[in-house]
Amino acid sequence: MSNLQRGLAVPAYVEIAETLADEIAAGTWPPGTLLPTHKELQSRFDVSRITITSAIDELGKQGMVYSGYVGGRRGIIVRPIGRTDHFATEALRSDRIQTSYDAFSENARKVGRKPSKKFDMRMARPPAWIADRVGASHDEVVVIRITHQYLDGEPWARETSYYALDLAQKVGLDTTEDLSQGTIRALKDAGFEEIAWIDELTDESANPTDAADLAVPVGAPLLVQTRTAACSTRITRVSQFHRLGRRNRLIWELGKSAGLEIIRNARQGDSE
Question: What is the residue range of the signal peptide feature (predicted)?
Answer without folding.
Answer: none
